[in-house]
Amino acid sequence: MTAPQFTPRVFSGIKPSGGLTLGNYLGAIKRWSDMQDDGYDSTIYCVVDLHAITVWQDPADLRDATYEVAAGLLASGIDPSRSILFNQSQVPEHAELGWIFNCVARVGWMNRMTQFKEKAGKNAEKQSLGLYAYPSLMAADILLYHATHVPVGEDQKQHVELTRDIAQKFNNDYGVDFFPLTEPVIEGPAMRVMNLRDGTKKMSKSGESDMERINMLDDADTISKKFKKARTDPEPLPETLEGLKDRPEARNLVDIYAALSDTTPEAVITENAGAGWGQFKPALADLAVAKLGPISDEMRRLMDDKAEIERLLRTGSDKAREIASPILRRTYEIVGLVR
User: Alpha-carbon torsion 42, 47, 52, 54, what sign?
Assistant: First the structure.
């Protein structure tokens, strides 16, 4: 039997659980914007607010964060006329398919998910059931649209592998070829943007010092100051990328420069070999201000017009449901649920 041909379709989501950082932009959002031009039938991007509440969220903060993330996506080039942009809770089919997949996924699969272990730590018994089971909701997010490609960071690859396992088990259990085996898309020179004070730690919105990260709402002066004060080492830039081995802070700044300038770390090293940090960091600061300044300005403008953000998310959710509803309806038929 010939395998079904699925329409090339991208899905990815981002949690509204705090302010956006340069790590979010270079690790995900910039690539999402670029993928709009990569020839996919559709690109679907979601503010995954249902995932956010797997840990306690202050309701007012959650609303503000949802607006900020949506504003960040729009300001970074996600075009509602070319992509579908919405927040997850406006499309109830996500939760409905999530329950079906709760009944397909195995407990043993969930026990192997490393992110739950990292987030729960020694207090696993006190965590919400949602935090434990959210990988099956993530699978539903993806497969609800028959998405064939998911841009993710390396730390999310395991979730796409679980999505493939769930799709395959569903197809095998019911003797169908209904859900695609989604492929992760992992690429880009700055997939993991690191802390500006400690190059061994990922840049995080929850870090102790604001100087550790570039916030997407930082103004030009703040962006410039943070890069100029970023931690480095005494050595100049080497002649080859291999020379950055065991120099995590130096490698991080080179990777950021490469990602912002749409080039490679090798090209950055070739162009700046032998340069000292007094030369390279101001150049990086100027580049970052040129690239990020207009985005932060547009984010602020959008944040002052929440009604417009709500309108765009509502329109996006309507478009999302046009794809999702028939897929969920057919899933129910396959399972044997009377509608």
Answer: negative
